[in-house]
Amino acid sequence: MTELYAIYGASGCGRSLMPVAREQLARLKIKAEIVFIDDGLKAPAMVNGHRALNYDDFKQIAAENKFVLIAIANGKIREMLANKLEQDQIALWSIKANNTVTMDDVSVGAGAALSPFVIITSNIKIGKCFHANLYSYVEHDCVIGDYVTFAPGVKCNGNIHIEDHAYIGTGAVIKQGTPDKPLVIGKGAVIGMGAVVTKNVPAGVTVVGNPARILEKK
């Protein structure tokens, strides 16, 4: 059976995840090629020792099974590409680093990217195409929606609900909620770099600072 693996996106996010992907295949003793997909390419190229080609060329490669990790930080674009892959009957691929820690009763949807030094503790439910960057953690009893992005060093404490398409910036700290009153980050909200979130964040807003407050549009 021939298998082909790909990372969709050859920019910084994709290039940083490629070694994690290689490491995972080696760990699982899977001998298969991993390529980059980059829709900006007119012709195939080489990126960090891997073939890079556009999506149309990728589809033309003969393989019994194809698996794709979407390495794009923007959750809306991840969703669009995931829908395209589903229409073309190409499976979402999940990767996690060798030193990623996951504990008890953890459910993570398809298409996740868990970078080195990520920790996901116990009793946690995470949707599809989740990105957790370097040194991020998710503490107990959290619920995270689809297409959520954690930049490096995010501290997501216990009893937090994060809705679809939220983006949590580098070094942000989210205060722990309680079982009867979880702290909620609304759909599509953006948490700024280094923000300290101490209360619920409405859908679609950007919050910054310590304590985090809504960034008003001028």
TrEMBL record:
Xref: CDD domains: LbH_AT_putative
Pfam families: PglD_N
PglD N-terminal domain segment(s): 6-85
Residues of the site described as Increases basicity of active site His: 141
Annotated active site: 140
Record InterPro entries: AcTrfase_PglD-like, PglD_N, Trans_hexapeptide_repeat, Trimer_LpxA-like_sf
Domain of life: Bacteria
PANTHER family assigned to the protein according to its UniProt record, in alphabetical order: ACETYLTRANSFERASE (PTHR43300), UDP-N-ACETYLBACILLOSAMINE N-ACETYLTRANSFERASE (PTHR43300:SF7)
Family stated for the protein in its record: Belongs to the transferase hexapeptide repeat family.
Protein's name according to its UniProt entry: PglD N-terminal domain-containing protein
Organism: Acinetobacter bouvetii DSM 14964 = CIP 107468
Source organism phylogeny: Bacteria, Pseudomonadati, Pseudomonadota, Gammaproteobacteria, Moraxellales
